[in-house]
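Second attempt. The first submission of Hemerythrin-like domain-containing protein had a stray character pasted in from the spreadsheet, which I only caught after the job came back as garbage. Lesson logged: always re-copy from the clean sequence file. Corrected sequence (260 aa) follows.
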Amino acid sequence: MPGPITKTVFANAPFAILETPVYAQKKATGKKPNDQYAEAASIMVLVHNVIIRGLNSIYKQAPHVKPEDYADFISYATCWYEFTDNHHNNEDESIFPTIEAQTGEKGVMDEDLEQHRAFIVGFRALKSYLDSVAETPATFSGAELLSLLDDFAPQLHHHLTDEIPRLAALSRFGGKLFMLKIIEAEGNRSAQALSKTGAMIFFLRNSDLEFEEGLWKNWPPIPGPVRWSILKTLGRWHVGWWRFASCDESGRMQQLYAGN
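This time the job returned cleanly.
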């Protein structure tokens, strides 16, 4: 008799992965647009999708983690928090003020700042919970973690989705705003701020290099051998954490570890 049917689970739900403006235009016109605003908004999508894949991987696996894996899963979820927190802090402290300064339009990014405030209480509550169970991993509860995520994750995903067309709409400022340079500079700044054996590896292990038919396989702009070296050296420090990642070391979406 055949064995039981098992469902292959990936981190592509419950929160939808976003499409880049560049890919959408390429599908519509047959060629990649030469537009700094579409490119900048697309890079932001790639960052947001790392957050979303990480969120999905936590959400789907939390109820199925075995007690002996609690400590690793808690640390993995904490890396997601660090990456997401770093991203939004950089927006609040640097990206949005720079956009405002270059455009001369005060409050141009206020809607995004308001959306950040809409989920911050629940977001911080998650961190408090992760800190508390990190001290006593046996007290971890997947159900409690899901309840905390449900308190803010829909608003977070709404913001991650909404921000993209607003960034693309900044094209109304034309050459006055150096949008692509702003996004690229902040990418470098973020990379320096992330913990090298934690959130940095989280970032790489939740970046799908096959996304949108491999259009973004060279993003982030890290040479393949260097990327591989980082994963094989710094990634070995906490190897147990990355079992829960949405992608394997080669940058391909992988079947989720817990619950399959």
